[in-house]
Give the backbone structure.
Amino acid sequence: MHAIDSLDEYTQNDHLKEWIKEAIALCQPKDVWLCDGSEREYKELCQRMIKNGTMIPLNPSKRPNSYLCRSTADDVSRVEDRTFICSKTKEEAGPTNNWSDPDEMRKTLLKLFKGSMQGRTLFVIPFCMGPLHSPLSHIGVQITDSPYVVCSMKIMTRMGKEVLNVLGNGFFVPCFHSVGMPLHNNQKDVPWPSNPQNKYIVHFPETREIWSYGSGYGGNALLGKKCYALRIASCMARDEGWLAEHMLIMGFTNPQGQKKYIAAAFPSACGKTNLAMMTPSLPGWKVEVVGDDIAWMKFGEDGHLYAINPEAGFFGVAPGTSANSNLNAMQTITKNTIFTNVALTDDGDVWWEGMTPQPPEHLINWLRHEWSPNSQEKAAHPNARFTAPIKQCPVVDPDWESPRGVPISAILFGGRRSTVAPLVYESFNWEHGTFVGASLSSETTAAAAGQVGKLRHDPFAMLPFCGYNMGDYFAHWLSFGRKADPSKLPKIYYVNWFRKDAQGKWLWPGYKENSRVLKWIFERVDNKAAAEKTAIGNLPTKDSLDLQGLNLEENDLKQLLEVDREAWQQETQYMSSYFQQFGPHLPEGIKTELNALIERLRS
Ligand code: SAT
Ligand code: MN
């Protein structure tokens, strides 16, 4: 459906109709497209983008129905310093978020959005986060002037007409997006429209609204993902008593056919996609993927914690992905995939660093330059991405769309830590596990603009994604656990695949070998594997970790499982000064846990 005249046929939702009309009046688009989510629509928009130079169709005999898009050099990642939480007060946003007065911000945005879609089409995208008929799902509608966003949202969410049927006259989160580049007087479009001067990724938690201006990149522009499913949803979850988390969800089955689901939080670009669809090196064990980025979790009637993946696609980091590191991802992206900022091969396929041991002789790189292995430039941007449907993954979990979600037995926290943090440890209980999540630090990656490799605190891997005061978020986690039957709560673990020795060599092989750590966790949940109580938590005994067939040196293992008292004492100082910024919002439970850790390290 294309014409605004058909708005009454399109939706019965009064708020939606009104909002669409307001958006048209404000943004002054040249036309309006009410998305139905059909294949036909997708193909038509791809054709438009091919014409405009936004998309290059890949060789259909190599990668059917797949496309390459290349952004401008400055629109390649999330922009955390341009991301705002506009709660009524700064205190509600907390010390880790950029806050701006909501009234002031509204004025700024209204000015920017005024006429912002001139010469462009305004698209209306109804989408559902989570399976269409799940009680855990929530609906949003995105208005955008980017056909790239429409096509990406079709892969990443359940999108289109059926969502409007489910919505009826009910509640939805309005997600307002413009690339911020109006076309005046038949001005010619560019392949990747965006606004280099002005970027705003704005959340109004009280009114549950999102406004995003100036960027076409993933996390800034596909508003169902980080903006809704994490920042706004974290506020909804706090108010309604559930959890919205930056976590993968995977099923893990032992050789006897027993299965447990695991949720795991890691910062962006720390291997969530690889872990979520791993091929275990341990014979007989199996991983199946429910999601690779976001988990919405709620207690079921039986008192167990259930999780859904609100997304329907993977928006994964391409560089480093290979048949060796992640064969299941490679097979997922063989068709129906949008690639962004990877390189184009001479035979019309894609390539990125790490995809094959030998680079091709010649490429067009993501910057559209001629490229050879001697080139100074990267072939693909380090944060280049693939966007592909989850259902194409060879190891998709049979219950990945279960409306009730999957029962979670263990929660993992982790990050990139070359020092201090051991390979794995188990928390003593939910309160301690919450503290472990709260004290997470990780070395920064290319997923966000800024310096790479710098250690920063990233509580629960939610630092860029929590829509309210992080101190209150800790309190929400603590009270959430207190409401539960402790015997039914998932056990909480810390893992670190990224430990290095003094010479800078990785101590742990990672990838499929991480199944060894998962096996220990699986068996701990069943009270089978042995552990040794230390000051920081329960660590595997040397024999309880299955290292058969792995040529790990004795000394490397020792380092991987070492708790260096002095380093940890320093770590607690570092935590303590970090936590201070939350002032009265830091819950007693976190202070108690920190003091208990300091005490244990002393004795
Ligand atoms: O924010 S994105 O979804 O674009 C990628 C990430 O940071 O996880
Ligand atoms: Mn992420």
The pocket of sulfoacetic acid (ligand 1) is lined by residues 78, 218-219, 225-226, 268, 315, 447 (CB under 6 Å). The first strand starts at residue 31 and ends at 34. The radius of gyration is 24 Å. DSSP finds 17 helices and 31 strands in the chain.
